[in-house]
Amino acid sequence: MARNQFASKFGTMAAIAGSAVGLGNIWKFPYVAGQNGGAAFLIIYIVISLLISVPVMLSEFVIGRRGQGNTYRSFINSSGKKAWGTVGAIEIFAGMVILAFYCVVAGWSLEYIIQSIGHGFGGMTYEQMSVTFDDFVNGNRPVLWTLIFLAMNCVILAFGVSKGIERCSKFMIPALFCILLLLAIVSCWQDGWKEGAAFLLKPNWKAVTGQTIIMALGQSFFSLSLGMSAMTTYGSYIQKDQSLVSVSMIVTGATVLMAVLAGLAIFPSVFTYGVEVTSGPNLVFKTLPPLFATLPGGRIVSVLFFILLFFAAITSSFSLLEAGAAYISEEWKVAGKPVTRVWALVILFFTVGALSVICAMSQVSGSTLTILGWSVFDFTDMFTSNFILPLGGIAACVLVGWLMERNVVFNELTSDGQFSAKVSGFFFWLARYVCPIIILFMFINGVRSIERPKAAPAEEIAPVVAPVQSTSVLDVAADEMEVVFDPNRMIEVQGENAAE
Ligand code: PFF
Description:
It contains 20 helices and four strands. It is mainly alpha-helical. α1 crosses α8 and α7 crosses α8.
C-alpha cells in the first residue's frame, strides 16, 4: 500500500507551519523578544534560526523523506543501522510526553472560549481573574477539557494525513493568521499602541547578552518543533517535487511573522493599562481577557483570541500525535497483523490521555504529583526541552552531515537536482560543522540548569526555575511570576467598563 503523503504544496506548508506555530509563539516569544532587546532580539532570532534551526529542520526532513517511515523506521532506513532506531524511538516517546502536557494547556483554551462567550470578562480585575483561573485549574474541568482536546485530535487524525491533518491545517492556519492580523489592527485603538509596538520592535542592543543568544536558540529550536519526532514524520509525507529548503525557510518566516503579530495584538493593551509585561498562562488567562474586553467589540475579541490559541495548539499537537500514530501503525503487530491507524489512535488516546490527566492533576495546588521538586507537568516540559530535544537535533545533524552518503543527502536537499545545489551545500555545511557544536553548548546549558535544584535546599528551587524556563517549550512555570498592576490605571478601566 502506498504511504501517506501531503497532497498539495500549500497543504504541506500549512501542516508544517501548523506544527511550528504554537502556544510558544503566541505567549512566550513576544515576551522574550520584548524583554531582550525588541528588534535586536528579532534580528538575532532570525540569524540563529537560519544558521542552526533551519539546518536541523532540513536534516530531519531529509531523514524522514529518505527513510519513508515513521521516525523510528526513518532513522534506521536512512542510516542503514538498527541502532539508530533508538534515537527515533526516544524522540517519539519525548513527543508523546510533550503532547500530554500540551493537551492540558490546550484544554484550558477550550474552557476560556466557552467562558468568554458566556460573560466576556469585562470589568474583572486581575485578582478576580486569578481566582477564576485558580478555581478552574483546581477543579475537575481541566481533566475533561484535556481529554476532549485529545479526542478531537484523534478523530481528525483518523481521517488520515491528507484528509485529516492537511485539510484542517489548510483552513486553520490562514484563519489563525487572519485572527492575529485583526487583533493586531484592533489593538491600534489602544492608547498604549505606540509603547506596545516599541517594546517589541524598537532595537535595544544594550539588552543583548550571551544569554540572549542562548535564549533565541532555545526559543527557535522549540518553536520549530525540532528534536521531537514531528518534523521527521512530516518530512516523510513531503512530495519529491517540493523543495525542502523552501519549506523550511517559509515555515521559519511564518513563525516569526505570527509571533510579531501576536506581540502587536497583546502588548498595546498591556501598556495601555500599565500592567507588568509577562508571559505564559498568567498573560493569556489572567491579564489579557479583561483588557481585551475594553477594545471595540471586546467580547468578540476575547472569543477570537481563545479560538486563535486553540487553532495554534491543535495544529501543533497534530504533528506529535501523528508521529505516535505512524509509529504504532507501522511497527506494531497484534496476532501477526499490523495495528490499524484507528486502533493506533485509540491506544494513544488512552496512554497519552492517562499521562495528560496526571499532568493536569499535578497542577492542582498542594498536589503531591511531583518529580524532584517540580510538578509532573513542569518536570516533563523542562526535561524534554532541556535533554531530549537538543540531543535529537544533534543526532539528526550527525546522521545527515557525517553518516549518510553525501550524494543521497544532496538528492534529497535538491529533490534530485530540481533545486539549487549551492544553497543546499551551505545548509549541509552548517548541519555538519556548526549545528552539533552549538546545540551541544545549548544542551550543556540546559543540563547545568537542571542539576542545581537537586543540590539546593528547597527554598532555593524557585529562582533556579528561571533559566530553565528559557528553554522550556511552554513557559508554564512563568505562571508563578508576579504581575503588578498600576491601581490608578485599573480603576480607570473599571470605570470605563461601568460606564458601558
Ligand atoms: N512549535 C510548538 C510551539 O511553539 O508551541 C512546539 C510544540 C509543542 C509542537 C507541542 C507540537 C506539540 F504538540
